[in-house]
Structures are given as C-alpha cells and as structure tokens.
Amino acid sequence: MEYDAVILGGGPGGYSTAIRLGQNGKKALMIEENKIGGECLNFGCIPSKAVIELADAISYLKEMPGVTSSVTIDMKKWQEWKWGMINKLTSGVERLVTSYGGVVVKGKGMIENSNSVRVSNETYDARNIVIATGSVPSRIKGIDEVLYNKDILDVDHIPKSLVVIGGGYIGIELGTAFAKLGSEVTIVEMMPNILPGTDTDLSKFVERRMNTLGIKTIVGARVEKVTKADGYTVSLADGSLLNSELVVMTVGRQPNTQGFGLEKINPEMDGRFIKTDKRKRTSVEGVYAVGDVSGQPMLAHKAFYDAEIAAENISGKIAEVDYHAMPFVIYSDPEIVTTGTKTEKFNNIPLATNGRALGMNANQGVFRIYVDDNFVIKGGALVAPRASELVSEISLAVESGLTSKDLGMTIHPHPTLSEGVKEAAEATYGKSLHYKSSR
After folding, report:
1. Could you give the CA distance from residue 130 to residue 26 in angstroms, rounded to a whole number?
2. Are 307 and 315 contacting, i.e. CB atoms less than 8 angstroms apart?
3. 437 is a domain residue
C-alpha cells in the first residue's frame, strides 16, 4: 500500500500530523521507536508540570499565613499515579490516530529514499515523508554520570540535595519544584544571569522567589567535572566543589537528526536543524519536517502548529507558518510568559494590584501589553501565577489585529488574574482602573 505520508516520530509533531492528515481524509502511517507521545508526553512537558503541581500544592499550604501543615510524600506511589495518567494520554493519542484511519508502527524507522521508509524487514512507500524526530538533551563532553530530565522526573524519593547544571528554563523549573519538595538546591549557570535570553526586568521576580525558597544560584560558573561515589561532586572551573545526592543536567536540547537515515536524502540544513520553507517543506521534494527538528522555537505547541501546516500542504492546500504570536512559557514561580513582538509602548501593571493574586498570597509579578503608535496590540509579557493560562487572549489579539482598547473594553470576570491583562491593555492609553502609572 502507498500512503499519503509516512511520519517518522510519534511525538507532538508526529502524532498531530497523523491526526490532521486523517481529518483531511488522507492515509498516514506513523512510526515510533519508543513511546507514543514522544519526549514531551512521557519525559518532559506533562511529567514536569505534574511534579510542579505537586510542589506548588505543598508550598501553597506551607506558606499560607496562619496555616500549619505536615505532608508526607510517597514518591513511589506518586510515580505510579503519574505513569497511569501519562499512559491514559498516550493510549488516547494512539486511538485518535487510528480512529482517523492512520496506521501506527512500533519500531525504528530508517529512510531508504524520499518515498520509502523501512522498519526492520518491512518497507513502507509513501507520496510524502514527514520527519518529526524531535530533540534530545544536550550533553557536555566528558560529563557522563549525571541525570537528565527523564531520570530526575522518575525518582522514587525526594533527594536531600540536588545540583542543577544549567540555569535556563528547564533548570529553573525543576530546581524550584524540588526546592519546594524539600531538596537543598544549587543551580549552576555559565552565563552572567539565570534564564539567559529573558529580560531581567521579568526574571527578577523569579530570582526573588528563588531566594525566599533558599535556592542557591551560582552564575558565571563553568562545570569542569562531575564525579560519582556515594554521592556526587561537581567541580567548577574556579576550583570550588559542590557535593550533592543527585546532579541533573539541563543545558538545553538539540535536534535529533541522527540514526534514521537522513543522509540518504541529504536535505539542506540550517545549522543542526533541517531547513524548511514556510510550508514546512525541506529541500527534498515530498519530504517535510516539523517540530523541534525543523528549527526554533523548540516547543510542543509549535510542533502542533507545524503539523497542521504540513498536513494542509500534503492534502493539496496551501498553508504557511506565521510564528509572530508564538507564546513562550517558563513554568517558574511566578510563571513568565511572552508572546508576539516587544515594543517600547507599554505600561506595567504590578501583580500586587490584583485582588485575586493577593488572595493567593502572591504579589511578585507584572502584566504588560505591547502596542504600536496606533495602539494595535503587538505582544505581551506576563509574570504571574498561571500566566500560561492567560497569554492566549493576548496571542489572539495579536493575530486579530486588535487594539488595546478592544481588549480593555472587554468585560473580564472579577476577581480574576485575567483582569491584570485587561488593566495592562487599559494602561497603554492611560486608563487602568486599579493602578495609576507614573510612566
């Protein structure tokens, strides 16, 4: 049988391409070597947020004034629950693929040519190939005996101490969660600041919160060596040593372009990424690439979006990517989220002016809407609890060409965190209700 598309990878990019093709009446075959759902569903997005939710729940009561609580964590039982939850999601994804007529093949796919992929002794022919092989954790040469996200999220107990190598978003998220769960956490970052690439006027709220949690951060430091005996010893370039029960490496991710025969078709590359055009086509006719393997930003929701674009084009339509309202979320405490384009025209609304936030015992953060000279919304930045749940309103405004008055005149329920978005929009034209800006 010849398929409309053979898809290499069953993560967010792969399974969503299969589903979208099925919804368009096309026949797709999806190949996955390990677990359906890929890195995100099994070892990244979902389990990391689950451990963050656990940590936040414990921290919330512990820090609420007037409340005394004692909690015992059985991580083995929690891990059973977590994997049960994940398995429900992965089996649901597989059922969705097959319900739309897709075929799922378990095994290692190897590209034979631009129209054929082999799994073991079986060759599958297709009019198109979609490469959705995702990404893998970056490693530091010579530092081998450390944990990665997959390992730390599967621990059967809370470590007494934890060193996190890398102060980017993954390191900050995991370090904060384990500090709340009771670990003594030290984060080592090579750059001068944690969360490199994030505006310091946003990340400063997270730094303050980390200080209150007792997290130690060492910036401008390079790790020379990690040795393992009864515990771990981390040697820094300045000669200092850090001892801990566990060490986790979170120095970023890199696209997975090895081990599946990419050299057989030799597509044009963009650095380590497979180069694609706006329709997600590679330089090889009939071959597409979506998600992490096809370029920044390396985000699951970007993979979902890429998949729909690729599926539309494979289905005979014309669709092009437009990433100008791509949300980026750091699940820190408080969460940081940005979308769209930054401009110089904005006013800050402090989180401390939001009644719902204060009722949550949270006062560190900011709401910000970026507009142009005509008050058309171009983007936004939020630092707040559940900021990830608030940003889509701003992305929709950007995509729709709405003005800040459109958003400011939209009735928001009270009391809610979302009122901060409304007030940030109002602040751009000087009429925020609960805060008078001096800017």
Report:
1. 14
2. no
3. no
Catalytic residue among 157, 324, 412, 414: 414
Residues whose CB is less than 8 angstroms from the CB of residue 171 and which lie 6 or more positions away in sequence, other chains included: 164, 165, 187, 189, 194, 248, 250
Q: Are residue 72 and residue 169 in the same domain, yes or no?
A: no
H or E, element range at 40 = helix 38-43
Count how many residues are written for the chain.
439
Phi, psi angles (nearest 5°) of residue 287: -115, 125
Strand partners, 219: 189
Q: CATH number for the domain including 6?
A: 3.50.50.60
Name the domain boundary from 251, 273, 288.
Answer: 251
Domain count, the chain: 3
Structural domain for 418, as ranges: 328-427
Predicted TM-score (pTM) of this structure = 0.95
The tens-digit pLDDT sequence of the chain (439 residues) is: 789 999 999 999 999 999 999 999 999 999 999 999 999 999 999 999 999 999 999 999 999 999 998 899 999 999 999 999 999 999 999 999 999 999 999 999 999 999 999 999 999 999 999 999 999 999 988 898 899 999 999 999 999 999 999 999 999 999 999 999 999 999 999 999 999 999 999 999 999 999 999 999 999 999 999 999 889 999 999 999 999 999 999 999 999 999 999 999 999 999 999 999 999 999 999 999 999 999 999 999 999 999 999 999 999 999 999 999 999 999 999 999 999 999 999 999 999 999 999 999 999 999 999 999 999 999 999 999 999 999 999 999 999 999 999 999 999 999 999 999 999 999 999 999 999 876 6
Residue 417 amino acid letter: L
Q: Are strands 253-255 and 135-137 parallel, antiparallel or unpaired?
A: antiparallel
Last residue of a domain, one of 251, 274, 305: 251
Q: Helices in 262-377 by DSSP H: which ranges?
A: 300-314, 355-359
The answer to whether the CB of 48 falls within 8 A of the CB of 175 is no
Contact 85, 47 (CB under 8 A): no
Which of 246, 184, 212, 182 has its CA nearest to residue 54?
A: 182
Q: Catalytic site residue 414?
A: yes
Inter-residue contact 124 to 117 (CB < 8 Å): yes
